[in-house]
Structure formats: structure tokens, C-alpha cells
Design brief:
The complex is a heterotetramer, with two copies of chain A (about 80 residues) and two copies of chain B (about 150 residues).
Chain A lengths: L1 E4 L1 H7 L3 E3 L7 H11 L1 H6 L7 E4 L2 E3 L10 E5 L6
Parallel strand pairs in A: 1-5
Antiparallel strand pairs in A: 1-2, 3-4, 3-5
Chain B lengths: L1 E5 L5 H7 L9 E8 L8 E8 L3 H16 L4 E7 L1 E3 L4 E9 L2 H18 L2 E7 L2 E4 L4 H7 L3
Parallel strand pairs in B: 1-4
Antiparallel strand pairs in B: 2-6, 3-5, 3-7, 4-6, 7-8
The chains are: A alpha+beta (about 80), B alpha+beta (about 150).
């Protein structure tokens, strides 16, 4: 599964994209798994109320299932316009 | 309908003049342009906009389609830049054309409210060598609840 | 601030591009353009606009001043034509520039609502050799009550 | 006093402007006086709910006094924009 990071989530984790092998059932499970990996992930996901997630380029929720998903993206609330 | 996501500047005058030009059935045309704004402090060196290629296109198409469902629009335009811009530069524009003014205004406001909080763009300010990500405003999230 | 009342066409692209151009303190620019609209019937030959010289200038200045009192506007533009125009021609435009989008949108809508019903212009349609004055709409009068 | 007419009020009365000598106290009195003059005035002022008035280029009302006023204008509801 491709995992993408944008804005300060990308800066804290230190890379824009990586391949992750996971059996996490939901986004929340994936976040838990990443948090346990290294301090930089724990820092990026310290406050989930400030993080948004997209599954296959559609905005989604942390309790959404990951089955069949090819691309997960984490980023702060958007500031377009 | 045209949607453009690009790094290079756009020619606002030409885009405004060309949008819905010569349409006889649209009485009202609204444009909104977002400009890199420097605060009173005047110390903004640049604004940098990051986006999510692929998702951005999908999100803008979805927002545009939703506007066309809600209002009787003859034409619709969205241009949004990414990359580095100086204060005073135009970041983006929307255009809406409708038979009556209320629909053109409402559709343009709707597009802006959704672009602000639902299109994957992130702004970073460069000031005196330091940088900071622009934080989303509660008022922008609240603005969505009107629609 | 600029207010122009004129018979000749105006260059919308140039006016839009020039309006508030280069301002670093205004993040939001809105334009509204009114266009001579032909109905589905497609039989409109021309729109003729009569106005009240002297009073028109006063009324537009008053409406503009009221908008500047209500919103924090960095700039404001009103151009309104009179005389004979073909379908598709631009009748008028307003421009508003403000630090934030909501003020720019609201001020533009306010200007339009007041221009519709409180500025001394009267529209006459020419169709197949016959003419008819456009009637004021109750919805336009109602729109004023928002403000 | 100058009296001006616009749009269909002008067309019904048949002229854009005239000088009127009057001792009418209010706009309503002036309208009554004009109505009594000729049929074309009666036609123009048949339905006052469809007529607006400006005194010295400011929108006003039919019960407004005319004292000191130099220019009165009658016209239909405006259709600008």
C-alpha cells in the first residue's frame, strides 16, 4: 500500500511517500502501527484532530476499513483558495 | 467548464474577458480572485502552495459538479496555482455564469468555501527566512455548513 | 474608488486586470458583470438603457459610500453603461477588494442589489420592431431587505 | 420648478422635461394638479404605486413637501444593474 504525507505531516515524517506492508484493518489501526515504529511517526500523529486522511484520493475517516485500498494519504486540514 | 491546476501564473484579465464571453443566455457573471496577502507587518517574502496531484483534480471536479447540480450555471471556471508566489500575486480564481445574479454569486461563494477546506492545497508562509504552515480557520469550516 | 457612467462599451478584461492590481493587503477580489440577456426565444434585437444624468452619479456615489461604511474594502469599482446594447454585450460591472472573501462577496452583492432598485436606470427591450420597458421585480425589492 | 419624466412616464406625457409654475404644497398635490391638466398626465399618473419620485435628485415620497425644491422627477421603479 502506498502511504503519502503532505505539508507538516510530510515534514515531520521526513518523506513524501513510502510503501507500507500492513495487515491493519482500519486507518486508525495503521496509524497505531506507524506510531509504534519510530518517534517521527509518533510526532506526526500526536494529535489526530489535526490530521485528515484520504483513501484512494477521497477524503475519509480514521475508522474507515483499509481493505482494497491502494493509496492512503495523511495531511493537515486543507488551506486552499 | 474548465478546471486548471498549474504552477505558472495565469492572465486574470484574459481569463475574465474570455469567460462566458458572448453568451446571450447568461445575464450574470461573477469572478473571485484570491491574492497572496501580506499582513500589516509587511514581512511576507513568499507563499508556497503544496498540493496532492491526482486528488486535487478529482476534488475540484467533484466541487464543480456539485455546484452545477445546485445552480443553473451556464459556465464555470476554476484555476488554482501551486508552488511559490510573491505577495500581490494571484493564487486562484473561480468564475460562474448564470441567468440571474443570485445564482452566480451563490455558486461562486459555494466554490470558494469548498476550495478553502476540501481541496488538497496547503499554504506555507516564508517570512524573514522562517517558514510556517497556514492554519485552517474554524470560520472556514463553519462556512461550509451554510450549503 | 472609481465610478463611471458611460455610453461606450468598457474593456472588461482590462478593468478586471487593473482593479486592485498589485495590492498586497487585499486577499479577495470579486467582480460582477451584467450582460444583455436574450431569452430562450432569441428574438431580442437590442436593450436600451435610459438614465437620469446628475442623479445617477449621486446615487452611485451614495451606494458606494454605504458599502465602504459597512465593509472593510480596499477598493471599489462601478461601471454602468446607458444607451443601446446588443445581446451578449456587457451592461455594467462592479468590483470589490477586501482582506477576506466574505466581505468582498457581500459588498458586491450589496452593490448589485442597490444598483438594481435604487439607481435611476430603466431598461427597454427591442424585439421584432416592438419595444417594452422591463418591469421591476418584486424579488429585487425583496433583496434589499437583507441589508 | 423643473419637472422631469423618465422611461414610460416620459413617453406617456410626451416630453422629458418642463417648467411648471405651481403652488402645490406636496408632491401629491402637484400630481393632482398635473392629472387635472390633460389626459396624458392622467394616463401617466393613473397608478401611483407604479411611479417613483425624486426631489432634487434624491428619492422621496408623494407626501414630501415641495417648498424649496427646484427639480422634481417622476419615473417607474428602477431597473438598473
Amino acid at each position: 500500500m502506498d502511504v503519502l504525507y503532505f505539508a507538516w505531516v510530510r515534514e515531520r515524517i521526513g518523506l513524501p511517500k513510502e510503501k507500507v506492508e500492513t495487515s491493519a484493518a482500519t486507518v486508525a489501526d495503521l496509524v497505531e502501527e506507524l506510531r509504534g515504529r519510530e518517534e517521527r511517526y509518533a510526532a506526526a500523529f500526536a494529535d489526530l484532530s489535526a490530521v485528515r486522511v484520504a483513501l484512494d484520493q477521497e477524503l475519509s475517516d480514521f475508522d474507515a476499513p483499509l481493505s482494497g485500498v491502494r493509496e492512503v494519504a495523511f495531511f493537515p486540514p486543507m488551506t486552499g483558495g | 467548464m474548465r478546471i486548471a491546476i498549474q504552477e505558472e501564473p495565469f492572465d486574470f484579465g484574459a481569463e475574465a474577458a474570455g469567460f462566458a464571453d458572448g453568451r446571450h443566455d447568461m445575464g450574470a457573471v461573477v469572478t473571485f480572485t484570491g491574492v497572496v496577502r501580506d499582513l500589516a507587518s509587511g514581512d511576507l517574502d513568499a507563499m508556497e502552495i503544496e498540493h496532492y496531484p491526482g486528488m486535487t483534480e478529482k476534488a475540484l471536479r467533484k466541487i464543480a459538479a456539485e455546484a452545477q447540480t445546485r445552480w443553473d450555471l451556464g459556465d464555470l471556471l476554476i484555476i488554482h496555482r501551486y508552488g511559490r508566489m510573491a505577495p500581490g500575486e494571484r493564487i486562484m480564481m473561480v468564475g460562474t455564469a448564470a441567468p440571474h445574479r443570485r445564482a452566480a454569486f451563490e455558486a461562486a461563494e459555494f466554490l470558494m468555501d469548498y476550495l478553502k477546506s476540501r481541496a488538497p492545497f496547503w499554504k506555507k508562509e516564508h517570512r524573514k527566512g522562517a517558514t510556517g504552515w497556514v492554519e485552517a480557520k474554524d470560520s472556514d469550516e463553519a462556512a461550509l455548513r451554510r450549503w
